[in-house]
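User: Can you predict the 3D structure for this chain?
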Amino acid sequence: MQESHAWTRRPPAANVVTIDDIAFPLDPTNAEQAGEWDGDDGAYWATYHREYERLLEVFDATLVEAGEVGRDDRVLDIGCGTGATTRAVATRATDGTVLGLDLSGPMLAIARTAADGAGIRNVAFVQGDAQVYPFDPQSFDVAVSRMGCMFFGDPARAFANIGAALRPDGRLALTVWQTQAANGWITAIDEALGEPLSEDDEPDGYLPGPFSLADPALCTSFLLRAGFLDIAVTALDLPLAFGTVDDARAFLETWIEEDDPGTRAQASASLQRMLTEAATVDGVHLPSATWLVTARRP
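Assistant: Here is the predicted structure, written as structure tokens:
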């Protein structure tokens, strides 16, 4: 998987990021993440938000059910990105409210436009760092996150801040990736692009990134330190939808970094073969491996 678009982190200049003259509090341990999500990575995800939302939408219904989202609930969506999960939750919490929080200005712009276009009025989006955001205490019934909690610089502190925003007995439901090696969609794409996984690609200990919470024991430890109870980690093996072969190839070709025309053509042909072999009557589906993590406040 090409790091340049999806997961690269470059440090910003300061601990407070300013976008369009709007500054928000930022924990120094999240400065690198903010610099990238509000920079090139966020812009890339915003550009290809339809492709990424199609890939990840399979987790939205799971989070709504796991969070036991009710009609009147006040819900926090952590790392909401372009707002697909926020919108899914809002359709359940019809008489409640949903707040989407994210570091990325470009992605939040898409989120606001999409919610307005869908006529969803019980949502709001805020740019901020969940690790230090000044939530009103006990102001939410549920917190959810679709792949948004793996990038915290200090996960225990982030979960403690989120927990303080939940009412007593408030619920938490989030999805995170299992190991890179366990995710067939990533390994298939990497192999097609000539970048097979090596042992060096698997992190040792906690390092912010897409696979940082792949160890259930480590993830559980952060939640325990943050004061959560009834923590459960359940394996999910939901296939990801990439659309048609042509759609998938066009999207995944943007992950090719090589400038040499011959190398790019070879990688594109390899992608074509892999995607064609994986295609079904419903489009290309590749296997994923994630954890569904649930917990509650005392």
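The longest strand covers residues 166-177. Residues 261-278 form the longest helix (18 residues).
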